[in-house]
């Protein structure tokens, strides 16, 4: 039986996309399958640069087709556009075969962000031509001392009359993917002659320029995560992408676009690892029985499966809000850090659950799982830590839970359209004014599903908490306490989009019930954590314990979901 909820290269047919998108996605799958597992793992272990993959991408026009917005495509045809739905599909495929491949693509997306937001037509034309030539891009924001603290950048631009435009840039950047090979690096810096935000500059640099020095790869990986240094690098008018506050906004808005990709990469990693784990567990005999005959093993693998399904449902629905966003609908600003924080940490849980089952097998050098167990850790830590994104999510809690607004329903967005708003998001502020549609109807539609009903009661309880026991001014400075509350809120948002997507796709209610049983347990665990926080008041402690619930248990339902998991054994194995 082929599980239609998980990506399987043997059966993959993205028929919901246009013909050229289908061709490119299928060609990418076929390229990896033809290389085989041995080559895939060997390249990972020997830290081989991704030249073969980038050559394939250049030949097929993969990056150019998927990452050139329609206005920059000119007369090149209707297939070039920035379409978040098909970008998400490619994220999943690249994650499935290895995070190194995804990373080269991801940092190309980040590098293009400031360019596509720029009014500099020459720079945009240059970027389009570089994409057509198969070049990769890089995003020069982070620094060794300051990290991504853009208020304190040490990349300095000295005005220079000898350069038409014109500046000389000196400074270094750290942790910059593709910095060794990028045809264009979007670099953030500040002018030496202007103080404050008006002095910010985003400019385009070329990694092949003599004044651009690649210092080293800062990680031990096929990913080239560079440290580079510019010394009197000439920056002309044709290189300047943004100045002043617009440069600051371009940095944050680029991250808004780029960090969304982490969720679907995490999904791809988990899917490949799950096929390996279930196949191994089903074939492993202990004490005369298959490992999968043990109740705790079935529970762990079932939990892993439904968590993974939840990751996919949430991410797929978040795509719709991203693609439907506009100046009057910025709900994506909540769902984006949710995909970055919640989906990627769910991915870690999925891998850990499976690893508990397969144990030593997860270390073996001829498995994909061995690299998955390492790579899954990176995604929650890229494009802002879990804590940074959780703190961002908290900014939306009161409006989301208590102050719903009217919006027209957002449809499933698989249409072949350019997501133009992503490159005209405007100033990166005003989060407190973002409003959301009522979250309750998504839950009401599944009120007859026992664990959805129990989780809904917990969500209602969180609303009561916000109204009656919210942190006071002093507690609001206790980030440790706030993050525990943020985890509770994130679960409500996660459940909402899962249910919306379940309704749109007709998800099996057994799977949904099993998944929400896991979410009930998660909410209870975070409530207990809140109860134990040093600064929690007596009222907050009492609320926390009262919010603990036991999931509805149904042995027949669990057996039916287990049958879906068991059927994954042997459903896919990459050829040697």
What's the helix and strand layout?
Blueprint: H1 19-35, H2 37-46, H3 51-60, H4 62-67, H5 70-73, H6 84-97, H7 99-116, H8 121-132, E1 137-140, E2 156-159, E3 167-177, E4 184-191, E5 200-205, E6 212-217, E7 225-235, E8 240-243, H9 245-259, H10 261-283, E9 285-286, E10 289-290, H11 295-323, H12 332-358, H13 368-375, H14 386-394, H15 397-402, H16 440-444, H17 450-468, H18 479-505, H19 509-531, H20 538-546, H21 555-566
Parallel strand pairs: 1-4, 2-4
Antiparallel strand pairs: 2-3, 3-7, 4-5, 5-8, 6-7, 9-10
Care to describe what's here?
The chain has helices spanning 19-35, 37-46, 51-60, 62-67, 70-73, 84-97, 99-116, 121-132, 245-259, 261-283, 295-323, 332-358, 368-375, 386-394, 397-402, 440-444, 450-468, 479-505, 509-531, 538-546, 555-566; strands at 137-140, 156-159, 167-177, 184-191, 200-205, 212-217, 225-235, 240-243, 285-286, 289-290. The protein has 576 residues and is an alpha+beta fold. Strands 1, 2, 3, 4, 5, 6, 7 and 8 form an eight-stranded mixed β-sheet that branches. A two-stranded antiparallel sheet has the order 9-10. Strand 6 (212-217) and strand 7 form a beta hairpin. The longest helix has 29 residues, at 295-323.
